[in-house]
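re the bet — no i am not wrong, look at it urself. input seq straight from the record:
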Amino acid sequence: MGDLLRSTEMTLVQFLIQHSAVHETVHEIGLKGIVDFVDLNENLSAFQRPFINEVKRLDLLEKKLNFFQTSLNEAGPLPKQVLDFGNKGEIALENREEIDEIGKENIMEVDLDELETQLEETENDLNELLNNENELETQFIHLLENKSVAKSSGELFHQQTNDFFRVGSNMDDERKPLIEDNYGIGLNFLSGSIVRERIVILERILWRSTRGNMYLKWNEIKKPIKDLKTRKFVHKVAFVVFYQGEKIGEKIQKICQSLGSHLFNISENETEREDLINNLTEQINGLKVVLNKSRSLRINSLDRIKKILPYWYERIKKEKAIYNIMNCFKDDMSKNSLIAQGWLPKDQLEDLKISLHKATESVGSRIPTVTEEINFLNQNITPPTHFRITQFQKGFQAITESYAIANYQEINPSPFNIITFPFLFAVMFGDLGHGLLMTIFSLFVFKKIDKIKKMARKDEIVKLLYDGRFIILMMGLFSMFTGLIYNEIFAVPMDLFGTCWTPRKNSTVLDLKSKNCCYPFGVDPSWADTTTELLNSNSLKMKLSVLFGIIQMVLGIILSLFNHIHFKQFLNIWFEFIPEILLLLSFFGYMCFLIIYKWLTNWNHREGQTGGIILITTLINFFLKPGTVAKDQQIYKHQDKVQSILAIIFVLSIPLMLIPKPFILRHRWKKKQRNKNGYIQINGSDDDDENGKSNKQEEKFEFGEVFIHQMIHTIEFVLGSISNTASYLRLWALSLAHSQLSKVFWQMIFLFTLRINIPGTVAIGFCIWACTTFVVLMIMESLSAFLHALRLHWVEFNNKFYKGEYAIKFVPFNYKQIEAEANDLRD
């Protein structure tokens, strides 16, 4: 809990690493994942870094891995163990265990030059296989298309030619062809294939460009043909164009080729066409065998690559990460070593020394890595913030860090958010049925956690679901609890313990069973059927909202006290914490006291009073008529004197917060100026300004700036106390909206269908009610309540103690992300 409440104590370590051991040293530190290295070459561009050439080299190797992954994605699912090589039988692949063993032992330990050679050879082999297969596939598709055109052309040649010289029935009849009734003249022809959608365009262009001196017939090819450019199957048609003259033929040929058609040399003689088709069939069958063998070789190669690719990926990524870290080091030429700096938790110094010793031994170096702790307290250096959190705390910590990262050693709001966040959400979303549905959903997420975890690495929305699974669970459980308090399950009251009210005979008035009767837990269910139910629930929820808000804000101010004590800002204790807590409690705390006192008082035993005291009137008169309380509005004895004292405290706390601190800071600065020749140690906060920043190196003290800053802080707190208290009324508003919407859906949809005596209406009504409940309440209302709870924690709670200024998050160098991505490739 200590590490979660305050960030882990950090230390800054400087390393002096020999050139021969630097790579292995960074690798061992990465395995531990405990050091956040500092970039000592911030002034250098990326191309001026000492190891930029190695990074470029690894970038090229990474491109090769991307090429392998792209080839695998295009190939789709691969056979697991056996490949078919046609008539030569089956050749078994290496089993998975053998490949894994090779990957673990050889790839992770092999020299980078040798690994680069392996990748280049594999890339060349794969490119050669792909090129050969593409060439064979191109020939295969060309032969298939030629055969299809030859068959279709034969059908076109056998068609009747009664209208041979009246070209294009779909053309304009106004323009007549130039060739008419010239039987016996020999005509040339072109045959080919084109995409089905372009045949009409081709026909029209040929008609206009030849002025009708051509005749086109086409027939659709039954089977779709693969397009080598798009790698998709398309429907094509075979066509024959009859024409006269060489020049027209050249023009027709160019037009056909411009539209992407493939032209083939087809004979008009039927015997020659049959011989051509038989010849093409033999070539297709032979090429099919060769193509299958080529595909089998490619699949064999890709299968081997698929099994070994994760280890290549992991090795290359780790090497690149190591050299990127080494680019942050400074070169000390005089000692033939590199200088590095890094932050790590102070309690892990021994683990660091063990890793450094192991790295030195592994390279056989006689000179160990020298480490030295740097005293950063007297320097203008901000340590990074690091919290040791569990998976349960991760989501709540993410909520806090979305607002701001905590300053070093500042109190972390997350431990308190674990309870307050789901509770305030549940105040707005309180319903036993809705909370149960949310809990069931979170349990389903836990059941499918492994699958969701894998999906979370690729999808940001799923990642939010994975990280927030414990938040959803807590919100569901707390919503069930507040639903029991409100005594509602899908807006229906529950009589769990027996109501304390009984109806009168022949009347709608309810009477108490006994004077001492009290419903043991939550709201009595009888209130749900009364005409004053809304008025009663409004009063209860509004006052509860104010109570919860004041309690949380007081907690925030108390946490600021612990921050002041920890950072030894004693001036802030006297002139920030004390006036703030007095101001808040003297008025708003007193308001909470009146609410609770009125609840606990039995007004039936008060003479002349029936409990009709209006607290708003009392609070208004707190300032307008201090020291006077009307007799019919008096809640307790000596109320006028108590309110006078509290009003004085409220007023005096404002100048106490505003005036003394700037003058005291100026007095201390002047005292230091009089002692320039020798440094006088002043206790704790003497060197701290109102924000806890060090002033030791400041030569000038801007009193006006400090006073204005303190004035802004005072005005912000006084006005913020009022606005923040009013802001908590959103708990009442959203709770009321959720309850009334649930009731409307239940009564106006489901119960309405129950009153209709038509078969099937109940099922229809239930479906409509379930859908509206899920969409409006479970999705929209829950999201709205979540965002409002988020705002209450970020604005109303955090601004009382949580600064989060200039903070840096601790990001240690490790291989977790790389190993996770490699595991995804293995899966």
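see?? The first strand starts at residue 10 and ends at 18. told u. also Residues 433 and 490 are 5 Å apart (CA to CA). so pay up
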